Amino acid sequence: MYYEAESYPSPGLPVKDPCLSFWLQNTRSSSLLGHRTTESLPPSVDVVIIGSGLSGAATAYYLLTGLNPPKSVLMLEAREACDGATGRNGGHCRPYVFQGYHEYKKIFGKEEALKIIAFDMANLHLMTELIEKEQIDCDFWLGESYETSLDQEAADKKLDSYQMFKEDGGPIEGVVKMTTDSDEAKRLTRMRNAVLTASFPAASLFPYKLVSHLLQLCISKFGLNLQTHTPVTAVGTSAQTITKADAQWIITTPRGKVMANKVIFATNAYTATLLPEFLGNIVPGQGQCAAIVPTPSYSGKGMMDKTCCYYWGKDHFDYLIQRPKDGIIILGGGKDSSPRPGAILGCTNDSGRTGEGGKQAEITEYFKSAMDKYFGGWHDPNSDQRGDSLRSGEGLLYDWTGIMGFTRDNIPFVGNVEGKPGAYVIAGHCGHGMARIASCAKGLAMLISGASWSDTSLPESFRPTKKRMRQTSQTTKNNEEV
Ligand SMILES: Cc1cc2nc3c(=O)[nH]c(=O)nc-3n(C[C@H](O)[C@H](O)[C@H](O)COP(=O)(O)OP(=O)(O)OC[C@H]3O[C@@H](n4cnc5c(N)ncnc54)[C@H](O)[C@@H]3O)c2cc1C
Predict the structure, then answer these.
(1) 421/48 Cα distance (integer angstroms)
(2) Dihedrals φ, ψ of 340, to 5°?
(3) 126 CB less than 6 Å from ligand 1?
(4) Which end of the chain is more exposed for a tag (fewer CB within 10 A), N or C?
(5) What residue owns the CA closest to ligand 1's atom 15?
(6) Are residues 311 and 320 in contact, defined by beta-carbon separation less than 8 angstroms?
(7) For a substitution probing ligand 1, which of 268, 289, 338, 345 has the most ligand atoms within 8 Å of its CB?
(8) Cross-strand partners of 395
(9) Looking at ligand 1, which residue's alpha carbon is closest to its atom 14?
(10) In whole angstroms, what is the distance from residue 88 CA to residue 349 CA?
(11) pTM of the model
(12) What is the tens place of the pLDDT at every residue in 346-389?
């Protein structure tokens, strides 16, 4: 994801009228709605976490259940709990297993690129372990995903990455099944234009249920204080303590100020509002997603047996999961059909209203036809009941928007913000957070509790160093010249 740093203003605070995603529509009975563990804010705490998406919730969980847990943890959330990207994503927990290796190697070199890819697979295991251990009812499905190329350009790019990863010793045996025979790829994926497909382990889940379970657990068992509808408007420190290891942070909200020894920014797309050094280093970007009711040929025994991501051209793609729980298909992407693809980056409007920087009508239209366009037999020709048309209630159920945080080097920022003792960030997940955040949060919690970087499994490249923030734009320019 490449962009010019200068072009993006401060993201501001999350907008006040966010839409409800398919997930959020189904959680209107949650006891977390409007939750405030205490009536007023405590004047001082050990740790403040800003943001209650998966980054905030998983960091709280690993901090409070790890070694040396802090005495008090306060979570401040501008909206309802889990009302950012996590509450409105595709529910796809899908690691990079070789895809993307090519690009990562160009930026970071072979060893680090291999670590970044291995980190994703470790995250899938960690998510599975976490959900099993805590018995989290979040419609978790562990299976496989297809990575399918729909034309030769996309297939060549995919094969390049696959072969390079294999030659560099990447663990591919027993993990990735590559099919280069296009007829076989079509048969397996049911996609009309499949040229090539690879399959590998992946998962799907109901993101709000995962996060709300973690938050409830932290509140009821480990003393987390969650305060929803409490936006943080500024974070500072007194001039005397800024350079000291025990700096006291002052967190300002419309409901009063809180002092903390440590502050964690789990604010993804909005990080630069509170930490201006991230301006241009984490840039917001709007995504659109749809819930689709399948036709009979994709229901019951005809349901898809794997999730998928399909590519065409240089870098166009959609992704989907079919929920085993109810057969609903969650389809994300559609950017190719946008008349303003450039405006998606920099956009912070997740009100879900069509137009004016909000939901894009062209993408909604695209979602209506995408299944039929790409998947064979979507409209069942043998059904004399329906011919080519959909029954009332089939097809697009609803679509919504959400805001992601993108970085120039396509990896998140995780760790201590250089030059700011006691300030930590876990943000910039580049639309790939479900595939990384649990491991990022576990590593961050270890760092905060006193472990060294090498004790964690975090790739070195994730560090929020001044050097990285300065250098990214230069690296990007060099890469683009290659
Ligand atoms: C449409 C869409 C589809 C996606 N699909 C997938 C997918 O299928 N798979 C995948 O891996 N990833 C996907 N993603 C990306 C994924 O959702 C994110 O990477 C992940 O949820 C980020 O989690 P987070 O906790 O870091 O951020 P968020 O969930 O955005 O949480 C940040 C929280 O911080 C709060 N906040 C921000 N500023 C302040 C402030 N000043 N004061 C108080 N609170 C504040 C926000 O309100 C928000 O609740 C998708 C994203 C979108 C938008």
Answers:
(1) 14
(2) -130, 60
(3) no
(4) C
(5) 431
(6) no
(7) 268
(8) 293
(9) 431
(10) 13
(11) 0.95
(12) 889 999 889 878 899 999 999 999 999 999 999 866 655 555 57
